Amino acid sequence: MLRSFFMSFQKKAWKKYILFAAAACFLLSGGIWYVKEYTTVGNSVNGHEMPVCSVETDEKQAALTFETAWGDKKTGEILDILKEEKIRATFFVTAGWMREHPDLVGRMKAEGHDIGTMGVRHENLSEQTSAEIRAELQEAEHTAKEEGISMELFRPPYGRYSDTLIRTAAEEGFFTICWSIDSRDWKNYGKRSLIKEVVESEELRNGAIIRLNSEAKFTKGALKELIENIEEKSYEIVPVSEMILRDNYHMDVKGRQIPRMT
To answer: Are 109 and 115 contacting, i.e. CB atoms less than 8 angstroms apart?
Structure first.
């Protein structure tokens, strides 16, 4: 009888163990699913903030972005080409450059280009504190407002970013924008190399964001042909502001904005 009692007890204990293990597995898998979903809402991926590098869209669109922090001669000529080709692009400028070249800033605005900021002096902000970043962005925004410009786009200088940088920029009302295609024009490899980097990139697809530098040696000379090559692939070139998603999206590990299913 005693033996029967222990056997019955052991069976009940095993049943409880199995039920407990099953429940634990269910909760664990559910927990993992929840964390994965949560960390891909907005600009967070696996617990880290991501800049917008491209956009998932059915529209066959791409964006040309120009980093503009030094000089003015080639930037003016680039604006001439864009006007001639009826292209609206996105210029990321520093507050210092805006103060020195209000005429070019005025042209950018009048001709329908996006104007975003890279801060005040084009310095690496990725290791700065939230307070330092906030001061930098507020000064840049104040300078823009003096020129009658409202900004919502921020490109971290050198493409270097941190969780703190992206979060602080968002708190100040900025979308942090990097790129999916780097023309590498800053390496001065020549016109053909620049065009090839963009046109033959596997990242040239709907929602691509292309990085260029206004004052790089070969950018101005390559621009017209680059535009023609992109348009020959049936892409419409639009400003970043017309392509990005402002809500109801999540990000993948490459910084691609993806609309959330509703």
So the answer is: yes
